[in-house]
Amino acid sequence: MRIVFILLLLFCNFLAYAQEVPPIQNYAPVDYGAGTQNWAISQSGEKFIYVANNAGLLEFNGAQWKLYPSPNGTYIRSVNVVGDLIYTGCYMEFGYWKRNEYGILDYYSLINQLEEDLVEDEQFWNILEFEKWLLFQSLDRIYIYDTTDKTFDILEAKSVRAEIFNVDNTIYFQKVNEGIFKIENGKSVLVSNDEVIKDNIVIGVFSKNNRLLILTERSEFYFLTPEGLEIWNIEAIKELSSVNVYSSLRLEDGGFILGTISKGIYHLDTNGRIIRKINQIKGLNNNTVLSIFEDVENNLWLGLDNGISIINLNSPFNEYIDKIGRLGAVYASIIFDNILYLGTNQGLFYKRLNEEGDFEFVKKTKGQVWCLRSIDNTLFCGHNAGTFVVEDNLAKQISEFPGTWDLKAFSDNPNLILQGNYSGLSVIEKLNDEWRFRNKIEGFDISSRFIELIEENQILVNHENKGIFNISVDQDFKQVLNIEEETSKGIGSSLISYNNNPLYTTNKGVFKYDLDQKKFTLDSLLTGKLFNEDEGIIGVLNVDNNANRLWGFTESNIVHVSPGRFSNEPQAFRIPVPSYFRRILAVPGFESITPLSKQLYLIGISNGYITLDLEKLKSKEYIISINGISKEFYDAPDDRISFNGVSELDFKDNSLNFTFGVAEYEKYAEVNYQYRLDGVHDNWSRWSSIPEISFKNLPYGEYKFNVRARVGNTLTKNTATNEFVILRPWYASFWAIIAYVLVAILLAVLTHKIYRGYYRDQQKRLLSENKRKLKRKKLKTEKEIIQIRNEQLQNEIESKNRELAISTMSIIRKNEFLNTIKDQLKDSESNLQVRNVINTIDRNINNTDDWKFFEEAFNNADKGFLKKIKKLHPELTPNDLRLSAYLRLNLSSKEIAPLLNISVRSVEVKRYRLRKKINLLHEEGLTDYILGL
Question: pTM of the entire structure?
Fold first, then answer.
């Protein structure tokens, strides 16, 4: 029964998600930097996308857009990549683009190879490759270009809409008012001239069941039979009757894409059933689809009248985006009785799986829905206002106890359900086949968002901030008997039951409940699976008990854990998502992922939901390429560098910019890049989403640029590299270094010579200085000797002077003594003996021996004075000389008088006479004159 139910769900899912669309990426003209209209799309071998745009040829490498202006400034109407050449057609011109050594596309015209002029105002709307030929189609002709011999053949093929088709290796096209033709041996051959074809524009020609299937602009399909055209009666024929088709494409899986004038696209399966309709309301940039292209990874590219859209048809993700805000953020979801219910912050919404249309609101449920639970074949809705039982599109409130976070069934009593509410725990019961509120469990009033029933009458409650409460209640579940608290083990906590074991999760890890110790302990195995060095679970865990999967969200992955195929050890699977995915989920801590089938899950987001199909998850290999290398100048445009070989760059070109990318077009595949420049960095850089890097002012040397990418969790298969050399600057070149060496040698020689001369001069100066010092020392010594001699002479002079003074004073005292005696004896002068004594005294006073003695002492003390004064004044008498000698000794007249044995008056007279002999002026002093000689 369970298998049948799952198969039924899978079948229903086929029809259910018509409103869900594959991921769509839109590029507006401002994004790709060109015109609004996009007429054709093609892809190269390296997976680059090329678009024929009003402004020129657009190139997209998965990371950056680049515009190549049209060769003649007109709209490019067609593009087709063949090998390494990109063929384009525009007004009065067609040719090809080829990449040069700098990674830039150069244009080469083919018009000059034509032998016939083009039709006036001819535009080329289509380019088709067929074996060795290329067909360029305008509204007037088909130009068949032989790529081998470079020649052209021309077919006249006037049409209203230039469309050309390769079906089963046959080329078909339409001529206006004539019918469908094919090309055989270079000629046009009529295939059908049915009136339907004459009256309608053919948009597509396909092969189905070995028959030719023709699509007209009125969205009608016709089989071409020997009897004529036979309409293809499909389910969508009525709906498509009002659709005007402009473009079409047969998908690789056999399905059809119809691009319309005003209604977006219709996606049909191989049997003509509509799989989905995608228009501007559902995510396209514009409703007018001018061109359609399926790339090698089955992404659908739409060239629109205003922009470009990419649809990831094979993506494991599908989206339902509520663009008008009617649904709001999805907190809970469930499939019940073939109806998909969504619980949001706006209320409860539903949609039958096998019906078209939008989600409808379940009346009386306006407000926040917290949970949806299927218990006892009844759908319960936990609501801000209480609890509701939901049947189809009706909701009946069975509990007004506010804020029902969750509901848990009692395993041993199917008529009771435990509720976790804003203010504690409560119980609802089933009476007479109707559910109603029974009681609040008294004794516990804390918000009980996470609840789990363990042993009989034991309830675990987790509060995000306060921790875990192990509550024992009575048999009737009316009163709390005991509460044991366990403090919180981290932030962002949740409580679930996985494989009948309570699990408590925080940002620190996963903890399992130990029944014996009645507390939570770290589950290292699950923690290791859900947490790693780079990231851990953020928010709550979700459980899919049917598939035995445990789900969680990290910053860049959706993680699920399930039992291993060959062991009981759980295995972790990481599904990469872009960094913005975490931000579009509902409120953090209220993450919701609900199983819709065994492999299909619904993830609630802030403006709708996303489905995840595990069967579509595939591993892929990715290639990274360096798309451009350019020199950077602050005051000039960038200059490209050749990709061929090792580039040698002048030192002035030492600022470089590298652009790179991975040609990956999945919306949910986030590409990050990592680079390393050998010669500068030994380690890889941090991961970055920016597809370029600049290096400024690199020193000269050899370099190797390495870049790799990570798409989701997968590293690129290769590491793209480029080697280049920055040459030495002129001042560091080989010849400059030789010049520097020579200059250095010359400077060394000059310096040596200068220093040698300097030291020689210094030595001379030192020798001269030493000589001067010795001379000064000698002079000083001689001076000191002279000074000593002078001091000795001075001492001798002073000694002589002392002797002279002593002798002089001795004579003076003697004469004074004798004069005293003489004066005393004068009173007895009559006595002859007295007179003789007096005479004797006079003889002693005038004793010449005293003068001779004085003269000798005077000459010893003052050599040359007497000779000098005699020389100056030869007329002086000996008495005058004697007086001069006494004056030389600076004796006063009173002191001189006894020496001359005369009176003081007589001394003054002698002084006067001496003045006159010397001829002294009146104002000149005699003593001063004599002392000055």
Answer: 0.78
